Fold this protein.
Amino acid sequence: MKRLILALCIFEALLIPAAPLSAAAEGSGEYAVALGEVWFYASADEEEKCFLLPETYYVRVLERGETYCTVEYLTDDAPYKKLLGYCRTDALTFVDFVPERPYLRRQITVTYALPQTGDLGTEDFLTVQRTFVYYGDRYEEDGLYLYVLSDNEFGYIPAEAPPDFERNTDYLTAVSGSTQEPDPGADGANAVQIVVIVLACVAALAVALILLRGKKAPQEKQEF
């Protein structure tokens, strides 16, 4: 009887599939794309809005919460600087691949004309140019402001229109340039694995039947 129970346990174990590796276990990370108006927040608070993320670009999700996700945007690669913050979970569109171009790397140059009074009373203008790293937009009642980085300091500058930039399209499909190509032998390997499992199950049943048949039935006591 003990041999039969052992054989049945082996048979049941063969029927339990191994758990697949998750994306986190594979180290691919999780990304979410900004479609429409997606705010980047300084903290998990509706009043802490910083800027609207550039549309079709991504944040890397560090922790997914019910209301807010902890995210990072851009990388520490001068002149760019990584930002840690929050986005509303229901505003993000999560993807199951690693995007080839997750962050917008865009610099803008602004020219300022400063008035300067000449000796003869005529007004000249001193032209000054500054370059900023562009992060996103913020609209207020009095106009548009760009959230930028300059000399390691973040702030806003007024603008008449947001800068032009190329949109991503990889979120429209399930394929990204940085994801691994599918293994053509994967399906064949899976088929072989299934055959091995089936043969192992048949073998376990055969062992169970042999154990049952090999056990002698108790002889009936003969009466004289």
